[in-house]
Amino acid sequence: MPQPPRPDGWKHGSTPANKPGGPAASRKAWQPGTPAAKPTGRKVSRTGKLLVAAVVLGLLTVLTVFVVLELMRPDYPTLVLVAPDADTLAVPENAAGVNGVVALADYCKAGKSRPVLAADPDPAADRGAWKDKLSGRAKGTVLYFAAHGAADAAGPFLWFPPKSGPLTDADKLPLKDILDALGGLPKSQPKLLVFDLARTPPNWAQNGANPDFAAAIQAQTAAIDAVPGLAVIVSNGPGQVSWTADEHRRSVFAVAFLEALRGAGGGPNQAVTAADVFDRTAAAVQKWAVANREANQQPMLLLSGGTRAAAEGNQLASLSPAAYPGPPAATSAPAYPDQLAGEWKQATALAGGGVPPESAHPQAWREYLEWLGRWDRLARIGADPKGTPAGWRTCGSGSPPPSA
C-alpha cells in the first residue's frame, strides 16, 4: 500500500537536503554540491595589502642603502686639515704651517691605503668651519691644526687671526671647543688630534699672557680623558720653539709627520698606527732641532685613559710592498728679493740718520721693522710677502709716513 504522505510533504521518509542532517551534511568536502565554507578571518582590503608591501619595500631599501654605505666606507680615517693665516701683524705669519698641510693633502690625494682627505685646507676659513668636516661614520678621525697656540686663564687656545685690526677674544678657538666637538663623535671611533704649533717662543708680553700652549695643554688631562679613543700629539714641549725647515719650506714637525705616514722607520706591508707616527716623528724632530738649531724640540703624546691603546689601535695607513723611498730632497733656496734687500739698506740708513725714526714716528717705525722681518721670513721659504707696505721707509724723513 502506498504510504501516507508525511506532514513535511516528503515521501519515503527522506530528509530535505537543506535540513540539518540531510544528504548535504553527509557529503565530503570534495563531492559536488558541498556548500562553500564561510571565511573565518577578517578580509584584508586591497589598500592594506599595498600598505604592507610598501612598508616591506621601504625596509628592504633602507637595509640595502646601509649595506652599500658600509661597503663604500673607507678603511682609513678621515683627515681634516686646518691652517689659518692672514696678512696682518696681529700674529706672526703661518706660511710654513700652510705649506705643511698642503703637502699632507697632496699625499692623501695621491693614492690609497692612507688617510682620506675631508677637504682641501683653506687658510681663510673661519674658526668653526672645520667642525662641518667631522663625520660620525668615518673609520676614524685625524684633526690636524697648524696654527699659533697660546693660553690664558681659561686654558689653551689657537689664534684665528682677523684679516685686519687687532686680535680679540672672538679670534680664539679654545681647546675646550675642539674636545667638545671630538667628544660628539662615536665612542668607538679612533681619534687623533694634532697640533703643529707656531714657530715663535713663549712671550709674556704678547696678548697679556704667557702663550705657552704646550705647557697649558699638559694640565688638560681630565678633559682629554673625557673623550674616548683620543690621542693628542703636540709638535713641541713646554717653552720650546716649533722650528721651520727652510730647506723644505714647512715646519720640521710637518715634514717628519708626513714622512712617518709615507713609511719612514717602517717596513714593507706594515700597518702605520698613530703610535708609530708619533714615535718616528718625535725622533726625527728632536734630531733635526739638535743638529740644526742646537735646541730641543720634543713633541708630546697625550692619551685618553693614560695608556697608548688609543694611539696603537688607530691605524692611519698601510705601507706598500715597496721599500720606503727616502726623505724628500731639499728645495733650492729662493732668490732674496732685490726690493727687500733695498728696504733693509734704507732702514739701516734711516736708523743712523739725523732724526731718529723711533723718536719721530715710533709706532710707524716699529711697524715698518715688523713688516720687514715678516717679509724676510716669508722670502726664506719662497712665500708671497703680499701686504708689506714699502712706503713706510719714509719714517725717518721727518714727515709722517703714508700710513702713519
Summary, kept brief:
With 404 residues, this protein is of the alpha/beta class. It has 12 helices and 13 strands. Strands 2-1-3-7-8-12 form a 6-stranded mixed beta sheet.
Characteristics:
404 residues; alpha/beta; six-stranded mixed sheet; three-stranded antiparallel sheet; 13 strands; elongated
For the record, give the distance between the C-alpha atoms at the N and C termini, rounded to a whole number: 147 Å
C-alpha-based Rg, rounded:
38 Å
Share of helix among residues? Answer: 25-40%
Task: Work out the strand percent.
Answer: 5-15%
How can the largest sheet be summarized?
Answer: 6 strands, mixed
Strand order of the largest sheet: 2-1-3-7-8-12
What are the low-pLDDT stretches, counting only 5+ consecutive residues below 50? 66-73, 390-404
Q: What is the string of helix and strand elements? A: HHEHEEEEEHEHHEEEHEHEHEHHH
The coarse silhouette is elongated
Task: Please give the count of helices.
Answer: 12
> What is the count of β-strands?
13
Task: Give the class from helix and strand content and strand pairing.
Answer: alpha/beta
Describe what this molecule looks like in 3D.
With 404 residues, this protein is of the alpha/beta class. 34% of the residues lie in helices and 13% in strands. It has helices at 23-26, 46-72, 95-109, 175-183, 213-217, 221-225, 252-262, 274-293, 309-312, 338-351, 357-360, 362-380; strands spanning 78-82, 116-117, 141-147, 149-152, 155-159, 172-174, 191-197, 230-234, 244-245, 250-251, 271-273, 300-303, 315-318. Helix 7 packs across helix 8 and helix 10 (338-351) packs antiparallel against helix 12 (362-380). The protein is elongated, with a radius of gyration of 38 Å. The termini are far apart. Mean pLDDT is 83; it is low at 66-73 and 390-404.
